Amino acid sequence: MLENYQRVYASVDLDAVRYNMEQMHQKLSEATRMIGVIKTDGYGHGAVPIGRELENLSYVSGYAVATAEEAFILRKAGLKKQILILGHTFPYSYEQLIRQEISPAVFRMDSVKELAACACKIGRNVNVHVKVDTGMTRVGIRPDENGLRFVEQLIHMEGIRVEGLFTHFARADESDKTSAREQLTRFLLFAEQIETGLGPYTSQTLFQQCRDCGIAGSQPGCSPRRDYPLWTLALGGGFQREDFSATGAFFKESCGLCERSGGGSAGKLWWYLCYQ
């Protein structure tokens, strides 16, 4: 492959991507499904080729991306499995994402009403995932009474099907898991309040997202609700950990007489705790 090419390039090893996914899958229960987080072009590793590599794996149920445009690219490339948009979506994308069966994250009622109106207009339902802010303080509903009312409105809204609930653990990669555990407690309490106050969902899932190394089901003393399946999301990039020794990308940089090369370490590992 371009052996004489002298400029910067990244060589992505799809075998390493599959190896990393297999290593994670072996540590999960048989019922557990995985989602590949390939947002921002798979963190530069190539969302489409990674998605195609994962498409035929039976334990991979779908993908997660940051924007509607990224989701549309995957659909155009022929990927058929579920796609979850983790970030905000704008009205111009609603009809296309509904028709292509792409699931957006929701956390603003004005946006939900526009989304529902679009779904009803074209005679379809749209699956949504509720983003809960348990401490990231970026986007999401708060896990309080207002949050409960938000979820209740969604459940009874025509054109809307609540498929999931998730939160972002921004500090789950730290050695001190105190902050992540506190967020997890807030999330689980909120999920239980929804189930108690609003009733269990039928054929629907509540799930929780952690970041980088995940505290749920992977760290000693951090295995809440292990009877529920755990969805694991992974970029499949350059994991520099004992359990994921394969490097997904090799980076080479050269400038004049100075040349540097080394294994990529941009890979991220995400975890979801699912409710059934």
How many helical elements? 8
Poorly predicted ranges (pLDDT <50, ≥5 residues)?
201-276
Could you tell me the radius of gyration in angstroms? 19 Å
| Main sheet specs | 9 strands, mixed
Number of strands: 12
**Neighbour order of strands in the largest sheet:** 7-6-5-4-3-2-9-12-8
Which class best fits the helix and strand makeup? alpha/beta
Could you state the order of secondary-structure elements as H and E?
Answer: EHEHHEHEHEHEHEHEEEEE
Distance between the termini: 46 Å
**Strand content of the residues, in percent?**
15-25%
Give the % helix: 25-40%
Morphology:
globular
Structure description:
With 276 residues, the protein is α/β, with parallel strands linked by helices. Helix content is 31%, strand content 25%. The strands form two sheets. A nine-stranded mixed beta sheet has the order 7-6-5-4-3-2-9-12-8. It has a three-stranded antiparallel beta sheet with strand order 1-10-11, with no helix packed on it. The longest helix is centred in the last third of the chain and has 21 residues, at 178-198. Residues 201-276 have low confidence and may be disordered.
